[in-house]
Amino acid sequence: LEELYEAEQNILARQQKLAGSFRVSLPMTYGIRHLASLIIEFQSAHPELVVHIDMDDRYVDVVGEGYDMVLRIGNLEDSTLIARCLGKLPMVICASPSYLHLHGTPQTGAELIKHNCLLYGREGQYGWKLNTGSSLSTFAVQGNLS
Length: 146
What we know:
Layout: H1 2-15, E1 20-26, H2 28-45, E2 49-55, E3 69-70, H3 97-103, E4 116-118, E5 127-132, E6 135-140, E7 142-145
Parallel strand pairs: 1-2, 1-3, 4-7
Antiparallel strand pairs: 5-6
């Protein structure tokens, strides 16, 4: 009987509707690319839930700013938070043919330091991590566009 009661409680819990307010922060590029197609379906399934979405790449204070969930790409800096890996995001290094013609094609990660790279991330923390054989190396790239 106890197992039957637990099964019934699980079924009832799944049938409860989401209601109230839910505040989420996620990176701008991720939100634009992935959220638009999902939000309509999600809101249709949960019409009593008011969702507040902030699309911003800046570091947010999850508790201090009142977020229920924050999605970020990269390593978790605040170890007091609960994190889940949702997947891997492959990164690529690319350049226009005209840039490579003018400045040369880097052959190693160390050569990237000499190039004008697009800087993405928190100010002052522009390290590109590359697989260099059997290890992961970080190269402190520079550039005039961030």
